[in-house]
Amino acid sequence: MLCRVKLMSVLACVTVAAGVTRFIPSEFGINTRNVSGLKIGQILAGKTQLVDDLQKKAEQNPGFSWTGISNGLFFDLVRGC
Amino acid sequence: MCTYPAPWPQALLVESADLRPDKKKQNLEKGGFGFDAKAKKATIVDSGNEPFQTSNGGLISRAVASVLKHPDETANKYLNIASFQPTLNQILQIVEEETGGRWTVERQSSDELQRIGEEKLAKGDFSAFGPLLRAYLYRDGEGHALKEGEKANKLLGLPEEEDLKGTLRKWLASAGAV
After folding, report:
1. Do the beta carbons of residue A70 and residue A27 sit within 8 Å?
2. Is residue B25 scored above 60 in pLDDT?
3. Residue B87 phi/psi, 5° resolution?
4. Which of B7, B18, B97, B131 could form a cystine bridge with B113, CB 3.0-4.6 A?
5. Complete DSSP assignment for B48-66
6. Chain A from 8 to 47: CB within 8 A of any B CB
7. ipTM of the complex in this document
8. Confidence class of residue A5 from pLDDT cuts 50, 70 and 90?
9. Rg, C-alpha atoms of chain B
10. This model's pTM is above 0.95
């Protein structure tokens, strides 16, 4: 889990440097802004840390922004996807 | 300084299965909600009356497109969307109506799910996610469904609500249950 968090942080850094203007992280589940301190939050720590990181990056880099999308559970996901 | 051979996209959509342990078994077809169309069996947690946030794939794709089309309104925001927020009992009622008969109902307690999840987590077993997620979503009074004002459907130009019955009908038909 730690390696993946670092990978995502590096990715965030690189995308800022490359001039990407909007970063949409792999949320698409339950709202991870609300899960720190919960047991389930431990498993989702990677997601939480990435969004924390993106917030900081956006503050430091006015040309960079992010949007997180929480949709709850997938209901009718196409088979095999 | 490293150079990237292809032009960077203006927007980057990060898809990493590692960061989405919740993707594994959670849609209707994979039985992640606890509804088995072939066996006509439903697993209900606690009273089954807790509304939970859920979205169809189409809505999610449209949400992403909308974010990119409305960059200023969506910058540096965490947005919540939902196709609908049913309860497990509401789903059960619809599927029973559509299939013209009672389904077998098995009950689970959220306390038990929490206990199982925490035991697994303590051993470093991340399959803990399944039971912990079920407890999180369906525990009586847990209150994680989106409240008025928390839904970004309107901001993104999406319908406030999609057709739950229609979605379930399609699923039942594709499972050969109707």
Report:
1. yes
2. no
3. -105, 160
4. B131
5. S-----EE-HHHHHHHHHH
6. 8, 11, 14-15, 18-31, 33-34, 38-40, 42-44, 46-47
7. 0.85
8. low
9. 19
10. no
